[in-house]
Amino acid sequence: MLSVSGARGIVGKTMTPEVAAAYGAAFGSFLRSTTGKARPRVVVGLDGRISGPPLAAAAIGGLTAAGCDVIDIGVAMTPTVGVMIGHHKADGGLAVTASHNPIQWNGIKCLDGDGLAPPPAIAKEIVDRFRERRIDWCGPLQTGRVERDGGAARVHVDRVLANVDVASIRARTFTVVLDSVNGSGCIGGRMLLEELGCRVEHIYGEPTGVFGHVPEPLVENLVDLANATRNAKGAACGFAQDPDADRLAIVDETGRFIGEECTLVLAALRLLQRTGGGALAANLSTSRMIDDVAARFAGSHVVRTAVGEANVVAGLRPANGILGGEGNGGVIFPPVCWVRDSLSAMALVLELLAHEGKPLSQLVAALPRYAMVKRKMELAAVGGMAAVAPALAKVKAAFAKERVSDVDGVRIDFADGWVHLRASNTEPIVRVIAEAPDAARANALCDACAKAAEI
Ligand code: MG
To answer: What is the pLDDT of residues 127-173, one digit of tens each?
Structure first.
């Protein structure tokens, strides 16, 4: 499966060392042609899946045979790859990861020289090069070299520590339960929390790459974390990372899952408190809680963007934003890196707890509350991609009197809620997401949107 997010496939079927080598070589050729450098430098990391090493080795083979020098950082969080691109002044990065997908999957994600997920047009160019095998193999004397850097987690952790109030957090000696799902967050996640003076109870904290539960950090997959947090004496909270540690989900001190939408809101609240206000960026499917929290701080606003990490960054950067992210637990903290980062999210939430001096459950209870309803329909069932544009036009026409955004699909904002209809970038589905004060109203908004779209 090829998309703006890179390549993903089933290990041994559609994701093989052959594919990884060709993808690495295509990316390397792209970097040679666009940077104009004879030997671009590329940071390569992998998310710890057992299937990762042969794929990473093949990708490194492709990159070096296309004339790139490689800095191999081994098992690493995807945000760490972003950090290390800057650290090594590299021209790009490549992460071997299938993010939150189950263990049957693996994939490849590229980052540019600023450590950013490339915007859709560039991402498409890389994918097209791979698809058409437009590879510029280099001559024997131009073959790239590989150097290893085993200190990436340390560099990443230090970058986070330099940008949070370490003294306040350390003074509290929080007890924290961490679920790293035996993925790439095991080493860096634990290192960060220990540096912040936390007593860490680590579950699924062995970087074996054999996930201890279904890896997507959703409530149904975090039962062990909830129980461990409830039973740990005096725990402040529980944190769950996904396998490549770009997303963070949180349970409160009672073991209650607070909802993945809250991660960005809590991190933003702390940064708004610290800075007095500023610009934030979030995608159009992210909860309105972020707007409500921003409204408490003069001069603050939320830039709403199309769905996808690259789009959020494209909104965040020109606004000089202090924080960006998505409702799936992905927080982008610019002083650390331009990639969603579970370490930044953990540190900012702990800083909030340290400054507020209240239990997490109370802080969450003080946030505005909404119900969100997420529906999806098979693209084929609604008439395929060709049916999407007419459906969007019908929704726009039906709700022309309301506040309408067509940045990504169509989103209609009402006084008491919103509804967002769009085709997914990564799956053959159409999503309808609505948020309102209660589930009945949110469902009614979904119904009204679907009816107007005639799908
Ligand atoms: Mg991920």
So the answer is: 999 999 999 999 999 999 999 999 999 999 999 999 999 999 999 99
Q: Where are the domains of the chain?
A: 2-150, 155-365, 371-453
Q: Which superfamily does 2-150 belong to?
A: Alpha-D-Glucose-1,6-Bisphosphate, subunit A, domain 3 (3.40.120.10)
Average pLDDT on 384-400 reads 94
Tell me whether the CATH fold assigned to 155-365 matches the one assigned to 371-453.
no
CA 220–ligand 1 middle distance (angstroms): 17
Q: What is the pLDDT of residues 264-314, one digit of tens each?
A: 999 999 999 999 999 999 999 999 999 999 999 999 999 999 998 999 999
pLDDT of residue 455: 84
- Cβ(140)–Cβ(64) under 8 Å? no
> Quick check: is 99 catalytic?
yes
Residue 4 predicted with pLDDT over 80: no
Cα separation, 64 vs 359, whole angstroms: 51
Catalytic residue among 5, 51, 99, 180: 99
- Cβ–Cβ < 8 Å for 336, 316: no
Is residue 114 predicted with pLDDT exceeding 90?
Answer: yes
Q: Does domain 371-453 have CATH number 3.30.310.50?
A: yes
How far apart are the CA of 412 and the centre of ligand 1, in A? Answer: 29
Structure tokens, 211:
């996930």
**Look-up: residue for tokens 């430098």?**
41
The CATH fold of domain 155-365 = Alpha-D-Glucose-1,6-Bisphosphate; Chain A, domain 3 (3.40.120)
